Amino acid sequence: MKTHSQKVAKFDTKKSVKRARATRKKRSGWIIKVPGGEYAWSNKIERVGIIRKGLPYDSIEVISKRTDLPVRQVLTIFGVPQTTYNKKKRGKELLSGRDSEVVLLLTELLDFGSEVFNNESDKFQRWLKKPNVSLGGVKPESLFDSVTGIQEVKNALNRLEYGNMA
User: Fold this and answer.
1) Among 116, 107, 139, which residue's Cα sits nearest to residue 30?
2) Which of 19, 22, 33, 134 has the most C-beta neighbours closer than 10 Å?
3) Cβ burial, residue 49 (10 Å; 0-12/13-18/19+)
4) Number of C-beta neighbours around residue 161 at 10 A
5) How many whole angstroms separate alpha carbon 83 and alpha carbon 91?
6) Residue by residue, what is the 3-state secondary structure of 104-137?
């Protein structure tokens, strides 16, 4: 039997949603730091500007570290052979627009995922590597090879953030 001093706090969905929205509004933007500089954007138009200019091949290594995937596996996401990558990286060449967009979207996704998991990167990395029912039973990281796949992983993280199954 419960007494008045043992009140059970009710979960307030409205407060939870407000808190999640406030957290999202606090985010000022994204940054990807590569050797020789950094790229920052806070909206889609700024992202388009960076995509049009292109990101350096060094950004693939940044994504490799952030996703905890070997560079070779990240290269398969981009469809770039190791020898081509080495040559273009040495030549300080830039990624194509499509590949630059994937890097920027992955940066946004990884920042968002980290936020959803309260900056506990180990938990987030485990989540990325486990098959996920809401994604058709595939590992979230296996969807990083397309813009649609990245968006689906982001949708799953959104569901998780708001307390739905993901």
Assistant:
1) 107
2) 134
3) exposed
4) 19
5) 12
6) HHHHHHHHHHHHHCCCCHHHHHHHHHCCEHHHCC
Number of domains in the chain: 1
1 located within any domain:
no
pLDDT one-digit tens code per residue, 40-94 = 999 999 999 999 999 999 999 999 999 999 999 999 999 999 999 999 999 999 9
Question: By residue range, what is the domain housing residue 46?
Answer: 38-161
Average pLDDT of the segment spanning 109-122? 94
Q: What's the pTM value of the predicted model, to 2 decimals?
A: 0.81
